[in-house]
């Protein structure tokens, strides 16, 4: 897992870095208002991913039948059917979406993005199926090359169009490259077959993911839509920059963790001890990454904003740490969802996000009553805590594992978040509280580290391995 994880992490870092650099270039090239309009494309892309996300890339890893090429061909048929349904549906939603965004003149641009599901209908699932045997090469290739294609497309697109539409060209170029790269260095050939029984199985597996995606769309983009309507396109521009800086690292960790741990958890679903060790290890990883995001935003937030985006985006610096706190809590609840999915249960994130979605109307009310973005963020943080509690409780029951360690990590991280918010909006003396809380969280992670499972211990003499395990 560690060797595969290093390879997957490097690929995902390249993927995320290319997205980040692409958006930084756009932010530097465009006025803040134009960058805000470009952000509406990313909002619509989230909706597109929602409508076509029936989890086939995860089903082909989780389902033992995927070792049969004929079954993968039937999954391809189901995927094409999903694309043929999603594309016209999104085309029909282009104008209503433009009205909601307050950008009716951009309807034609939104219509072009409806072509993305048609391209994704021909993604080769063999790229993902190979992960069942720990072969991540094709997926690594896809991650390392597709986003850089989108990055490079920004320059001719801006030279040609000179406005926010450069972001649209970059997105289409990246999505097309990602689809084509799934057909590189894989065997057997791309097969297509249609089977009603498989389509029903895909629907049963995927409908919770689609509904969950709609909830995630409201959760992840509700704040930005509120900012656009309450504070205007310029505010959306710098707020989107902060969302990108805090959400992108969290997505990187979740994507890498799922790629690495889902195959291992699926293989050990019937072995309680091994499953628990992998689950606790993944929870440790998310907790440490979440803590790093909170501390990093507090220490370096203003410097990062100024360095990457320039002085015109400095109003966003005040909200970097609070949004990092919100995404830290969201990051921690990723591991329960992965554990539940290893047992074929895709409703865990749905139920957790139903709880989290209650924060959206609370955020609307907070923004309307106070006229401030701070109150909106506090409502989101409170809802994230509730969602993390729900995700853990449901996954632990479904997977039949202990949630004691996860619950301790959640409590410690919540206390760290409270101390961080006190520093941002209250007193710098709260560092005296945050530092020991952070140390306590790290000690909790260290206490659950299974040293005997590390690769180097397998090469030690048996007496030293026993001592290492006791340590």
Automatic annotation (TrEMBL):
The keyword Ribonucleoprotein does not apply. The keyword Cell membrane applies. It is a multi-pass membrane protein. It is found in: Cell membrane. Pfam families: Polysacc_synt_3 (PF13440). Keywords: Cell membrane, Membrane, Transmembrane, Transmembrane helix. InterPro entries: Poly_Biosynth_Transport (IPR050833). The chain crosses the membrane at residues 7-29, 35-56, 77-101, 107-128, 140-161, 167-186, 198-219, 231-254, 285-307, 313-329, 350-369, 375-394, 406-425. GO terms for cellular component: plasma membrane. Belongs to the polysaccharide synthase family. This is Colanic acid exporter. It comes from Sphingomonas mucosissima.
């Amino acid at each position: 897992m560690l060797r595969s994880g290093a390879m997957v992490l490097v690929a995902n870092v390249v993927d995320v870095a290319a997205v980040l650099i692409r958006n930084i270039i756009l932010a530097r090239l465009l006025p803040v208002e134009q960058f805000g309009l470009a952000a509406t494309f990313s909002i619509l892309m989230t909706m597109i991913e929602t409508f076509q996300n029936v989890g086939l890339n995860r089903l082909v890893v989780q389902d033992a039948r995927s070792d049969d090429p004929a079954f993968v061909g039937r999954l391809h048929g189901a995927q094409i059917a999903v694309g043929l349904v999603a594309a016209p549906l999104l085309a029909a939603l282009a104008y209503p979406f433009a009205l909601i965004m307050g950008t009716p003149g951009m309807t034609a641009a939104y219509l072009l993005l409806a072509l993305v599901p048609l391209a994704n209908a021909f993604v080769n699932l063999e790229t993902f199926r190979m992960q069942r045997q720990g072969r991540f090469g094709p997926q690594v290739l896809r991650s390392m090359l597709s986003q850089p294609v989108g990055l490079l497309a920004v320059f001719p697109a801006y030279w040609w169009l000179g406005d926010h539409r450069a972001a649209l060209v970059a997105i289409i170029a990246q999505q097309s490259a990602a689809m084509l790269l799934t057909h590189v260095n894989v065997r057997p050939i791309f097969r297509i077959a249609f089977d009603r029984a498989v389509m029903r199985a895909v629907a049963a597996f995927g409908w919770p993911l689609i509904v969950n995606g709609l909830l995630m769309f409201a959760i992840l983009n509700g704040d930005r839509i509120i900012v656009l309507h309450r504070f205007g396109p310029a505010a959306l521009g710098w707020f989107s920059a902060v969302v990108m800086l805090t959400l992108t690292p969290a997505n990187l960790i979740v994507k890498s963790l799922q790629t690495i741990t889902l195959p291992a958890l699926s293989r050990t679903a019937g072995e309680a001890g091994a499953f628990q060790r992998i689950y606790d290890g993944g929870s440790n990883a998310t907790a440490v990454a979440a803590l790093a995001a909170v501390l990093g935003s507090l220490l370096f937030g203003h410097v990062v904003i100024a360095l990457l985006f320039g002085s015109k985006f400095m109003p966003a610096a005040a909200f970097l740490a609070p949004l990092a706190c919100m995404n830290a809590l969201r990051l921690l609840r990723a591991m329960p969802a992965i554990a539940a999915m290893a047992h074929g249960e895709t409703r865990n994130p749905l139920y957790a996000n139903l709880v989290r979605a209650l924060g959206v109307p609370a955020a609307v009310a907070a923004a309307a009553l106070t006229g401030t973005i701070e109150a909106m963020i506090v409502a989101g943080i409170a809802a994230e805590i509730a969602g993390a509690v729900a995700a853990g409780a449901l996954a632990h029951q479904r997977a039949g594992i202990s949630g004691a360690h996860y619950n301790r990590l959640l409590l410690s991280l919540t206390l760290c978040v409270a101390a961080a918010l006190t520093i941002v909006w209250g007193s710098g003396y709260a560092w005296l509280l945050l530092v020991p809380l952070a140390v306590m969280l790290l000690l909790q992670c260290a206490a659950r580290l299974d040293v005997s499972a590390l690769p180097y211990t397998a090469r030690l003499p048996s007496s030293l391995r026993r001592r290492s395990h006791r340590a």
